[in-house]
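Notes continue from the previous slide.

Worked example: a multi-chain complex. Inputs as given:
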Amino acid sequence: MGFPEDDVISAMDRCGPNASIPELADSIYAAQTAKAAGIEDSEALRLSSSESSYDDEFETEPSDYYSILPPSPENQNWGKRPFHEKKRKWDELSHGKKKRTKQPNSIERKKWVEKPIGTHKKEWEWTGEPNWIGSNWNNASVLRRAGVTEPKMLGFGIPSMPDIVTSRFIPETAMGPPYFYFENVAISKKGTWETFSRFLYDIEPEFVDSKYFSVARRKRGYIHNLPIEKRSPLLPIPPLTIQEALPFTKEWWPSWDTRTKLNCILGCTGSAQLTERIRKALVSCNGEPSFETQKYVMEQCKKWNLVWVGLNKVAPLEPDEIEPILGFPKYHTRGGGSSRTERLRALGNSFQVDTVAYHLSVLKPLFPSGLTVFSLFTGIGGAEVALYRLGIPFKAVVSVEISEVSRTIFRNWWAQTNQKGVLLEIEDVKQLTNDKLQHLVSSFGGFDLVIGGSPCNNLSGCNRVTRDGLEGKHSSLFFDYFRILDVIKCIMAKRSKYSSHN
DNA sequence: GTGAAGATGAAGGCTGAA
DNA sequence: TTCAGCCTTCATCTTCAC
């Protein structure tokens, strides 16, 4: 995360051996902020590591001050005070004033629960208040109380229902420049998204299932400070059912396979041995398969996203078929020495372009002459493809991606599409020290958009071995996303202040 | 030695009934 | 409101073929 070793050791001393990475990061951040504000380390140490000292100051606040939903076993985390508030306290101390985000009172929270979700915007429109519509915090019982029979991950709106949420509150500290956009898996270890939100300036996440944008499900959360009004989808609207997206399967699709959507496209695929087992099981039935056989085949087909390519013959999707489903041009990942396995892995880790483009579409009228983009964890360039398909030109892209395969794919796309802007490639986020970031901001004149989805390896439900949450080896890189974004914001704010004085 | 294929559950959310 | 059963999931590790 780029913290000096001494600061880390001090934080470990303060927080104890069992402290989580977020706790340590907060403690380091608080100490650094205090130091910058000229406050004695001893006081910083006391306030950053002592929950009681914080509570004393806000003792008049209700215990569920930060709760969005009513107290329940499902939302207990929201009764806890965010780490980010501790960090903010040091901002307040250094500036001599408090900055508090207005939170809904008990009557407003009750109103949220009682109003039907997804009926009409005016019925549950909030003026500057958090709104967790479509989030994975919406447990089934809360939704049923609210009159929702089928939980949906609609975010702040989808092309067919654009007015689900028409306004939302963005804390002053979160406002740009630059705009930023963060993405990760929606369903992960408990508390993960609370941490994401806490670090990313307490912005309300937007949870969207890409099944509304494509044939495949893809439940993802997004935190950004972009406007949410007047979004527009990419055209043409991609096919939304399996048989529209993969018409060659129609001929062989059995009536008892009722799927119309694909499940999430992952980084690995079903094996040839599995499809052969399925074929033999079906052939042995001599006609209509038994209920048990149907059940077995359906389980495997759903698990591995298998489609019908012949009589009794199922097969996994090939990279060339996945690319358009995810919104990439066909053969986007082909060539450049990448194997089928590498292509599948790269695609499984990428954005769903149509979904992201819908959110980014608001940038087009704001930046008619083009964008300067800081792209973290670029992968195969999902964000850049989305912006390109929206018709937004690039002034420059600083791309950070550790995978050589992904870098090659992205570089080839950049050349193939005759991009006129500057492309600067950086391999590792760890290389981005404060000095380096200062240099980049100066060189490019600041950035309009900081975008990226940090690795989800340790968050994904697919991971059976190292599902360690945000403390995992890969997923802890989220803190680098935050670090880099925060440094860029600070540098740009200073530049803006300096230029306005002159 | 290298890369591809195959085998490996559990966590968290959803659903429906009591 | 609770709970049991069901469904889904940006992966990792070992084995095997070359």
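Summary box: Residues 36-151 of chain A have pLDDT under 50 and may be disordered. The longest strand of chain A covers residues 179-185.
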